[in-house]
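[recover] target loaded
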């Protein structure tokens, strides 16, 4: 609840949220982002893959600096799914550029399925990874979620249950 007040943004520190799939990391990050918007803050929400893909595409169109500035200027940048896909060069450099420029200037929320001690494994360049993570972790609020996934499938009711034999098509549903 403390993060929902957005006081961490006044401190210009990060909030790091880790936990298994389906435990609500993205939902909580988005809720905090919504609270920040209600306080008239500029908020950007993106996944790690999307953000790094956009930065890569911006290099091809000579708009990298403009895209980087957009990411740096936001009062709150939410990077979802850190480490879901391993970083490849130069993605690790792009992520470092974003984090280094935002360090002690703006707040960032990062969500990840990885435990905090596994975050370094996402970086091919261990020195660059250590430098990036050092900036993220400095003064950061850490939230660890645990439990079952909220994405459990709904059980089939007995009236809708259809049994198929191998080689047959289901024509009732």
């Amino acid at each position: 609840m403390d993060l929902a007040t957005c006081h961490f943004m006044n401190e210009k520190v990060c909030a790091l949220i880790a936990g298994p799939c389906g435990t609500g990391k993205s939902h909580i990050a988005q809720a905090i982002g919504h609270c920040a918007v209600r306080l008239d803050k500029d908020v950007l929400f993106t996944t790690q893959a999307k953000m790094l893909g956009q930065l890569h595409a911006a290099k091809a169109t000579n708009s990298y600096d403009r895209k980087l500035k957009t990411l740096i200027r936001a009062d709150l940048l939410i990077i979802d799914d850190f480490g879901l896909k391993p970083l490849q060069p130069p993605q690790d450099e792009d992520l470092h550029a974003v984090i280094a420029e935002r360090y002690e200037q703006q707040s960032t929320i990062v969500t990840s399925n990885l435990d905090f001690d596994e975050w370094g494994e996402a970086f091919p360049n261990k020195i660059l990874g250590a430098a990036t993570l050092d900036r993220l972790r400095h003064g950061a609020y850490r939230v660890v979620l645990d439990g079952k996934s909220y994405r459990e499938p709904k059980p089939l009711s007995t009236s809708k249950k259809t049994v198929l034999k191998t080689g047959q098509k289901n024509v009732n549903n």
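[recover] notes: Strands lie at 15-18, 43-47, 76-82, 107-112, 141-144.
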